[in-house]
Write a structure and sequence with these properties.
By secondary structure, the protein is an alpha+beta fold. Helix content is about 15%, strand content about 30%. The chain has an eight-stranded antiparallel β-sheet. Strands 11, 12, 13, 21, 22, 23, 24 and 25 form an eight-stranded mixed β-sheet that branches. A hairpin with a 3-residue loop joins strand 19 and strand 20.
Length: about 475
């Protein structure tokens, strides 16, 4: 299946405890992560992770530019454990989707020191405001932590409040803090939703082609359910009552669609249209055809998440009609990165490393530390190139991947081609500019020019995007461009 209906039942855990009550009841384990012993043997308060120089979300630990952190003596925790990786994801508050939480790994030297970031939805757009940060060492078998809480910059002081974080058996993360009553509650992974992608981007016919009318109805009403709307329909009420994240609190008559972000309203409108025109037999036939499809030849190189580039031509002669999808010829490129070891060689030891900048040709370039940080932190030099003509780049640490990607001015990521050949595109897939996500459908149509259904008629030139969405077999469903 290309989507899932979560059937996980919530385990009983009282949500009526304050942070102090949870401590008294023995539900919270006190942590002493706030202080570390430096190499000279003196104790010092460790800073909380904040945002790095480029404004990217920071990982845990006392981060410095480049994802560094302080540790005791010569010991560094460089290996992200599977148990830690499992909790590093995006969560939303049960009953109030406006509040979200991300948990991200630490820097290259303290991978298992996680940062918990608390956000609040920013109006009706796609943005969200970072309100609080906290971090702690995540230990196998330990589910309860008590930590001080910093502001958006992660800075702690004598007046910093405390919070209790409890990892539940059902996958939820409970947060208790007397100083953050609005943020208190249980947060659940977005993967617990019926097809979480529907909360990230505009949906199109490639997404819904194989869905039954019943699935479409659940998907549409889920946008209301995550905000705590009650349902008069007994089938909807029964289904959502079985979801661990559902907290019915708002009567249907009192709920307003104006509370929803524009993207959600846009998707609701689209799904409603698909419900009304749904042909159950055609949907079942489409799904049966999809089940027969072989995996795409490039499936193994597609990252689980993050930015990477896909481009292909719209010329008719480049595509072959394969029934429910097009087979065309295109290219996939991944971000150019440095490993932690390469980063240390260049930025700490002032050395030189050679990296592959084109996997198709084997072309390599040297990376050296920059002598002028106004231009960039490092230089990319092709064979025979000098510093005067080098490409200057900045480096940003990727917490989940544990590496550093290179980018230039205007936050343009440097990519390297890794695949060229057949690309499979589901019919109905669309390409769109990210800035249009928060625009109502009628306005997008009026503006025109930045949203297309992918067709091979030569009218567009090249299709291009740096945030593609493929299904689990590697067939393209949506292609989006994030950037200026």
């Amino acid at each position: 299946m290309r989507w899932k209906i979560c059937g996980v039942l919530a385990l009983s855990l009282s949500l009526g405890l304050s942070a102090c009550q949870a401590l008294e009841a023995g539900l919270v384990r006190e942590e002493t992560w706030q202080r570390v012993v430096l190499e000279d043997g003196e104790e010092a308060a460790e800073e909380t992770a904040g945002a790095d120089e480029s404004g990217e979300e920071a990982g845990g630990g006392s981060a410095t530019p480049g994802g560094e952190s302080v540790q005791s003596g010569d010991f560094y925790d460089r290996q992200l454990r599977p148990e830690t990786r499992e909790i590093c994801r995006t969560y939303f508050k049960a009953g109030d989707y406006r509040r979200q939480m991300t948990i991200v790994p630490g820097g290259r030297q303290d991978r298992n020191r996680v940062t918990v970031n608390l956000y609040r939805q920013d109006g009706q757009g796609m943005g969200k405001n970072l309100e609080r940060q906290m971090d702690f060492w995540y230990e196998d078998g330990v589910s309860r932590y008590s930590t001080p809480v910093g502001g958006p910059d992660g800075v702690l002081d004598a007046n910093s409040p405390s919070a209790s974080v409890i990892f539940q058996e059902d996958g939820g993360v409970a947060l208790y803090s007397a100083a953050m009553e609005e943020a208190e509650g249980v947060y659940y992974p977005e993967e617990d939703l019926l097809w979480a992608e529907a909360f990230e981007r505009p949906l199109n016919r490639a997404d819904t082609a194989g869905m039954s009318q019943g699935t479409l109805r659940l998907l549409r009403n889920q946008y209301y359910a995550v905000y705590g709307r009650k349902f008069d329909d007994p089938q909807l009420a029964e289904y959502f009552s079985g979801q661990p994240w559902y907290r019915p609190a708002v009567e249907a008559a009192d709920f307003s669609d104006d509370w929803l972000p524009v993207l959600f309203r846009r998707n609701i409108s689209f799904i409603k249209e698909q419900e009304e025109t749904c042909d159950e037999m055609a949907a079942a036939s489409w799904e049966a055809e999809w089940e027969k499809l072989a995996a795409a030849p490039y499936l193994h190189i597609l990252p689980e998440s993050g930015e990477y580039q896909v481009d292909f031509s719209s010329r008719p002669e480049t595509a072959v009609d394969r029934g429910i999808y097009w087979e065309t010829v295109g290219r996939i490129s991944l971000p150019l990165t440095l490993t932690p070891e390469e980063y240390e060689t260049v930025m700490k030891e002032n050395g030189t490393v050679e990296i592959v900048v084109d996997e198709l040709t084997g072309e390599t370039e040297q990376v050296r530390r920059s002598g002028n940080y106004n231009y960039g932190e490092c230089m990319l030099l092709a064979p025979g190139e000098t510093e005067e003509t080098a490409n200057y780049c900045y480096l940003t640490y990727r917490a989940l991947e544990g590496d550093y990607f290179l980018w230039r001015d205007s936050a343009d990521t440097v990519f390297k081609p890794v695949y060229e050949g057949p690309i499979f595109v589901l019919k109905g897939a669309e390409m769109e500019w990210y800035n249009y996500f928060a625009m109502i459908q009628e306005k997008v149509s009026e503006e025109g020019g930045d949203r297309w259904e992918i067709q091979f008629d030569g009218s567009v030139g090249n299709y291009y995007g740096n945030v593609p969405y493929f299904d689990e077999k590697g067939y393209l469903k949506g292609l989006y461009y994030f950037g200026d």
